[in-house]
Amino acid sequence: ASPQPSAPPQTNVDFSDLERLARIRKKWEGYLTRMSQAFEKAKTLDQNSSLTPKEKKEAWQRFLSAFSKDNPYSLKDDRMREYAKERINYWSRRPGPPPTTAPHLTKLQNLKKALSSKRAYIGEDEWRALEWAAEHAIDLRINSAGYIEAVFYNDTVMVYIPEGEFPMGQTDEEKKWLIKEVGKSVYENWYSNETPAHKVYLDGFWISKYEVTNEQYVRFLNDSGIDHQNGCEGKKCIDTKAEASDSHIKGNRGNYYVESGYEKHPVIEISWYGAVAYTKWLSQKTGLHFRLPTEAEWEKACRGTDGRRYPWGNSSPEGDKANFCDRNCGFSWRNKNVNDGYKYTAP
């Protein structure tokens, strides 16, 4: 005889806690979606020239008030709140249009006098640039050469290059000089595409007076919270010390730092994507539009309007005028007669 089967066990699986978690997460997803939509609206208002700084500040304050709760399942909300706080601080420093009170007007008038005293002709675009910079820059001055310099976020010093023509490219005389200096083979490989010389007209533009430094770029990497390997539109931003021995940036996502003594040296081993990402970050921080210069803008800023060979004139480079491969450099073609005190990059 076969044994009588026993009754099945009384079992019941309780999923209620997991179902509750799923419902909670779903609600937070909806919260993040609404927050992202409001964030984009606030950014649009931030760029609206019809609104005053006070009104733009109010837009970000409303955003923060509506989305003050921390999302335990995402870091994106933290980054949006941080951005909103930065914009509130930015617009707080600009409470309204340039005042018509004596201190502001006196400073602007003094700058205009300084500009007029440096150069014989000042174009209308330069006066407009000076007034614009007086409203937007952290600091403003006229440099020793008689051009407008403005200081912006992240110690960014910009110089205004006035509108007008300049000779771009290489003259026949410069071609002969280059062949004599570097040899025909090197000339053909590196310089032959610069001919012929031709006139180019450019509108006025601002350009950075100095190269972006290691410490400035590290500030961008850490503030953005990106990974240098793929954080610039999905592409590599920069090679750090781990990938390139001549780089002076170390660390990883959220914790990049500069090798001691190289903070003020120009950043190197940076990709085009990394350079563009830096300008976009600077634009977000300031509410202004930063970008990379064009080839023509770069050449005009470096050579001026008189077709000089170097920024300082036509005399050969020396250690106090340019950083190049001198006696400290390890290459066979170094110039042993010059010593600027640095092996490669210099502050």
Describe this structure in words.
This protein is of the alpha+beta class and 347 residues long. It is built from ten helices and eight strands. It has a four-stranded antiparallel β-sheet with strand order 1-2-3-6. A hairpin with a 3-residue loop joins strand 2 and strand 3. The chain is extended. 16% of the residues are buried. Residues 98-102 have low confidence and may be disordered.
The number of distinct β-strands equals: 8
SSE string, helices as H and strands as E: HHHHHEEEEHHEEHEEHH
Low-confidence region ranges: 98-102
Q: What overall geometry do the principal axes of the alpha carbons give?
A: extended
Q: Quote the distance from N terminus to C terminus.
A: 97 Å
Classify the beta-strand content into a percent band.
5-15%
User: What portion of residues is helical?
Assistant: 40-55%
- Rg measurement, Å: 28 Å
Sketch the major β-sheet: 4 strands, antiparallel
Question: What's the pLDDT, averaged over the residues?
Answer: 87
- Could you say which structural class the secondary elements and strand pairing correspond to? alpha+beta
User: Please, how many helices?
Assistant: 10
Describe the strand arrangement of the main beta sheet, using strand numbers: 1-2-3-6
